[in-house]
Amino acid sequence: MLFTGATTALTLAVALPLIGLVGYLLPLLFGEDFRAGVPVAQWLLVASVFLAIRRVLANSVRGFGVPLLSAPSEVLSTAVFSVGIFLLGSDPELSSVGALFAVSNGLGCALLAFRVAMLLRRRT
Question: What total number of domains does the chain contain?
Answer without folding.
Answer: 1
